[in-house]
Amino acid sequence: MPRILVIEDESAISNVIKNILLDEDKDYEVDLAADGEEGLAKISENDYDLVITDIKMPKKDGVQVLVEALENNPDLPFVMISGHGDIETAVDCIKKGAFDYISKPPDLNRFLSTVRNALDKKVLITQNRELTTENKALKRKVAKQYEMVGESKALSGIREIIDKVADTDARVLITGPNGSGKELVAHQIHEKSSRNRRSLVEVNCAAIPSELIESELFGHVKGSFTGAYKDKEGKFELADGGTIFLDEVGDMSLSAQAKVLRALQEGKITRVGGDKEIKVDVRVIAATNKNLRKEIKEGRFREDLYHRLAVILIEVPGLNDRREDIENLVRHFAIQLSENSGMPVKEFSKEAIKILKEYDWTGNIRELRNVVERMLILGGNPVSKEDIENFVKK
Ligand SMILES: Nc1ncnc2c1ncn2[C@@H]1O[C@H](COP(=O)(O)OP(=O)(O)OP(=O)(O)O)[C@@H](O)[C@H]1O
Ligand SMILES: [Mg+2]
Questions:
Q1: Which ligand is nearest to the CA of 364?
Q2: For 239-325, where are the alpha helices, taking DSSP H only?
Q3: How many alpha carbons lie under 13 Å from residue 72 in its C-beta half-sphere?
Q4: What is the number of the ligand closest to the CA of 156?
Q5: Angle at the Cα of 321 (from 182 to 330), degrees rounded to 5?
């Protein structure tokens, strides 16, 4: 129910305005104030959706009311009522942030449409503000999810490369064992690039059957194969202006490799069954846990594609090769997991950390993260050496 404040020293006029508003919509709630000071007091005490104010008034005039009110309520729409002598002032009020003005005596239709427009605008601004706040919170959450923790030499080196290459369009190939953080590195590169306003589109090449990968990457036109009921955009098109992340690229079939190679060489794609060439502006990041050199030797990976992808090579070492990061990672995951799940955060005793640092982490950081989660659920606080020995079989 919109709340409207009318500030007007001539009570005859303010009553007419009130009646017009209530005739228009019984749901309007209309308050009256007889001068600028009373108006400002009411604005600070109530949540109005619209203020309609006369310009010439005793105590404080309408311009002062406008300026002072907007300081605390920048989104509050103002409609100014101007008499004969102050059209110029009314125009000036718009520069100062008023939504609109109407002249005395107000034309009924124009007055009501101005009121409706002002109220609509207020709704839009409020929605927009809520979305922006939500968006920011979401972004913060995502950023936190992809925070890269660790002070080891290896990781500092990776951070340096990320900072250097992020805002270029250079293709990056990330290699490393399972769970070492390749995906995280890809996210960091995208987030630190100016492509971050667009999406990072992930494709898990290992999970898509080879006969579908072409359509997945490049899209298809209706009827091009059984099951193609309508035109479909591929991931390359979806990533236009952003980044595509070809994960597990070493698992792609040779025929799919040939098609990706062509897309990279020409910067253009063609939907399956289509004949139109579509230009796409996409930054490519690829990752694999395979040794691609070996795959090339054994004829499973195209060497020309390798060189296209590996302009910049980032090798993420396994956790056993950077044990000094373990302590920081344990703390980080304890906090992150407790925030995500609502479980209380726990400390880890020195002895607990010590044996975690000695374990053989074949599953790398993902495995360590799972262990921390298990300890938040099963361990004491602080988590002791015994907790770890009891619940982590090594
Ligand atoms: N340096 C790090 N700091 C914080 N979290 C990390 C770090 N490295 C990896 N992680 C976390 O560990 C988990 C595994 O990382 P990620 O998925 O990036 O590994 P991956 O190399 O892509 O693994 P896979 O080869 O199995 O796909 C994720 O939850 C990720 O957020
Ligand atoms: Mg991964």
A1: 1
A2: 254-266, 292-297, 303-309
A3: 11
A4: 1
A5: 70
Nearest atom, ligand 1, residue 155 CA: 1
Q: How far is the CA of 259 from the centre of ligand 2 (A)?
A: 23
For residues 286 and 174, what is the distance between their CA atoms, to the nearest angstrom?
A: 6
Q: Which structure tokens are listed for 217?
A: 């990457």
Distance 203 CA to ligand 1 centre (A): 16
Amino acid identity at 194:
S
Domains defined for the chain, CATH in brackets: 3-128 (3.40.50.2300), 153-317 (3.40.50.300), 320-391 (1.10.8.60)
Note the ligand closest to the C-alpha atom of 148. 1
**From the alpha carbon of 316, which atom of ligand 1 is closest?**
21
**β-sheet bridge partners, residue 278:** 269
Taking the C-alpha atoms of residue 219 and residue 292, their distance in angstroms, rounded to an integer, is 27
- Give, as one character, the DSSP assignment of residue 86: G
Report the pLDDT value the prediction gives residue 359, as an integer from 0 to 100: 96
Name every protein residue with a CB atom under 6 angstroms from any ligand 1 atom: 147-150, 176, 178-184, 289, 329, 332, 365-366, 369
Cα 318 to ligand 2 centroid, rounded to whole Å: 13
> Which tens digits make up the pLDDT trace of 103-130?
887 788 889 999 999 999 888 888 888 8
Q: How far apart are the first and last CA of the chain?
A: 64
Hey, which residues does 202 pair with through a beta bridge?
A: 245
How far, in Å, is the centroid of ligand 2 from the Cα of 201? 13
Identify the DSSP state of 34: S
Q: Which atom of ligand 1 is nearest to the CA of 150?
A: 1
pLDDT at position 273: 92
Q: Tell me the C-alpha distance between 353 and 160, whole Å.
A: 28
pLDDT beneath 50, residues of the chain: none
**Which residues on neighbouring strands pair with residue 53, listed in sequence order?**
7, 80
C-alpha span between 268 and 167 (Å, rounded): 22
What is residue 127's predicted lDDT score, i.e. its pLDDT? 83
Contacts of 203 (CB under 8 A, 6+ apart): 216, 217, 235, 244, 245, 246, 247
The DSSP H or E segment spanning 51 is strand 50-54
Atom of ligand 1 minimally distant from the CA of 184: 18
55: phi > 0 → left, psi -120 to 50 → alpha, else beta; which?
alpha
Residue 1, pLDDT score:
85
